[in-house]
């Protein structure tokens, strides 16, 4: 009965959010007054500094202190690939935790981005889903040691499965991993990250099927391209509103800026109003997603995104 009441409450809230934000003009949403003090904290997604990490300017171990010193941000979101296979090395994790603690920086989550290397949680084969869930345990363990609250995973491996079958496959694989996460008090969260997962309704339905308080979403402002080849997009404002009832974090992705300092792809004020409408309390992570062809380096872009968020509160 409790889960049923929660389902209807979440559905009602999502419906109200959609009605509220689809019924207002973009201008009205942008000018909506905010009288509340921000209930969330800005964090920095490590992918924003991928150029610095890939060039050797900084390492994963340097990321927390760099985040504080350069950007005055006190919370970080790691990306699995930058651990370079050292995620099970206790000495490495001890050093990373020592550095983050020493810098006074909170470790928020690990984004598991090793597409295929840890297995496909949405595979049509039950044995593959089981193995994939087990392969992700090491990231849960690393996150727990570092003091994170979650790991982020992807819906991958369903191949040519149809909408409903893919949903069932992923819900099953996700539930297998969530069981381990819950036992360790680490949430397993899913980002809209291409394909079916960039359909807000599909991903929200997956989370409802798993039905576990340690399973949730990471709504990303910019990842609503459902088909890479055709360039099909899901409405990002509707998508974020559909995912917010289950959000355990928010990814504030920026892609580029105009001469007024506004993002060229997303209306940040409108998005942050949607986030606020769901009384979200947690971390809003800056993720600089631009790069190629953008006349702005990572430092300037991250600082510009931070300003956008603060101005939108």
Structure description:
45% of the residues lie in helices and 14% in strands. The chain has 313 residues and is α/β, with parallel strands linked by helices. It has 12 helices and 10 strands. The strands form 2 sheets. Strands 6-5-4-3-2-1-10-9 form an 8-stranded parallel sheet. Strand 2 (75-79), helix 5 and strand 3 (106-111) form a beta-alpha-beta unit. The protein is globular. Helix 4 runs parallel beside helix 5 (90-103), helix 8 (163-183) packs across helix 9 and helix 11 (268-277) crosses helix 12 (298-312). Residues 1-36 have low confidence and may be disordered.
Write the layout of secondary structure elements.
Elements lengths: L1 H21 L3 H5 L10 E5 L4 H6 L7 H9 L3 E5 L10 H14 L2 E6 L14 H10 L1 H10 L3 E4 L9 H21 L3 E5 L8 H11 L4 E4 L6 E3 L4 E2 L2 H8 L6 E5 L13 H10 L5 E6 L9 H15 L1
Parallel strand pairs: 1-2, 1-10, 2-3, 3-4, 4-5, 5-6, 9-10
Antiparallel strand pairs: 7-8
Helix pairs in contact: 1-10, 4-5, 6-8, 8-9, 9-10, 11-12
- The separation of the N and C termini measures 36 Å
Spatial sequence of strands, sheet with the most strands: 6-5-4-3-2-1-10-9
* Fraction of helical residues: 40-55%
Q: What radius of gyration results from the CA coordinates? A: 19 Å
Total of DSSP H or I helical runs spanning 4+ residues: 12
> Biggest sheet, in brief?
8 strands, parallel
């Amino acid at each position: 009965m409790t889960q049923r009441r929660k389902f209807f409450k979440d559905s009602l809230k999502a419906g109200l959010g959609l009605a509220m934000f689809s019924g207002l003009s973009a201008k009205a949403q942008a000018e909506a007054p905010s009288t509340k003090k921000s209930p969330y904290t800005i964090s920095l997604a490590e992918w924003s500094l991928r150029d610095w990490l890939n060039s050797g300017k900084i390492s994963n171990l340097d990321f927390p202190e760099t985040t504080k010193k350069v950007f005055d941000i006190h919370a970080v979101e790691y990306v699995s690939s930058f651990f370079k296979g050292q995620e099970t090395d206790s000495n490495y994790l001890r050093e990373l935790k020592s550095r983050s603690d020493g810098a006074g920086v909170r470790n928020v989550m690990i984004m598991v981005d090793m597409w295929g290397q840890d297995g496909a949680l949405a595979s049509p084969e039950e044995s593959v889903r089981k193995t994939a869930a087990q392969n992700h345990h090491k990231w849960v363990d690393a996150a727990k040691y570092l003091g994170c609250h979650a790991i982020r995973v992807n819906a991958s491996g369903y191949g040519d499965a149809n909408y409903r079958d893919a949903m069932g496959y992923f819900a099953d694989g996700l539930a297998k991993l969530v069981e381990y996460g819950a036992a360790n008090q680490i949430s397993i969260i899913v980002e809209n990250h291409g394909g079916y997962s960039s359909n807000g309704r599909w991903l929200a339905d997956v989370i409802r099927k798993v039905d576990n308080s340690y399973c949730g979403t990471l709504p990303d402002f910019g990842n609503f391209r459902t088909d890479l080849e055709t360039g099909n997009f899901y409405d990002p404002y509707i998508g974020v509103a559909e995912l917010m009832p289950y959000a355990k974090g928010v990814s504030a992705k920026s892609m580029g800026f105009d001469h007024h300092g506004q993002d060229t792809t997303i209306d940040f004020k409108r998005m942050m109003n949607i986030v606020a409408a769901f009384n979200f309390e947690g971390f809003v992570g800056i993720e600089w997603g631009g790069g190629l062809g953008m006349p702005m380096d990572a430092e300037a872009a991250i600082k510009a995104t931070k300003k956008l968020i603060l101005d939108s509160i």
